[in-house]
Amino acid sequence: MAKRIRVDRGYEGRLDEFEQTIFLLKINYDKYFNGFEKIEPSAERDRARRELMELEQDCPNNTAQRHKLISLKSRYSSYELYWQRNLVQIERGTHPKFKFRAAVKDREREALEAASRRNQAEQQAEQHAQDRARKEDRAYQAVFDKYLEARKQCGQGTDLSFDAVRQALKGQVESIKAKTGCRSVKFRIAVEAGKAKVKAVPVT
Predict the structure, then answer these.
(1) Whole-angstrom Cα distance, residue 131 to residue 134?
(2) Are residues 126 and 163 in the same domain?
(3) What is this structure's pTM?
């Protein structure tokens, strides 16, 4: 009668744990390659290698357990080849899923840069418009001050609204530009028949 070889229950448990380790490691690498995890589970992979080496060193003289260890080692080796092939592709920048994610990030970065350029252009245009408005106001204010001084010297009333005068002058500018096609309009103060007047002069 053939001698029955004793099953090492502790070792059997370690084999089951290693099988679970392989299963979880495969899931983690799948998550990494699919972009759900940003960090490669290399530490877990190193632990799995150490577990396998220890299992090989401690393998008892039991055919069934030896066969199970060989099967697990073969499965783990095939996974390692697959993982390493994908890692090389990632390193070279040829991994399909990583290339897709990189392209998405590039498009997102380009969109952000374009939005930033648009915002900057809008801000510059707004600043330019504000600067131009302030410059125009200073010019209208200078004309208004000279006009009031001339009216005062002519004995005319000086109780005038700057806003009203400015609006009237702007209307003259728009009308003259439309009629003459000139680039700008200058104003000069003239006194005619003892009254101060603002004369608009087109600048070609």
Answers:
(1) 5
(2) yes
(3) 0.48
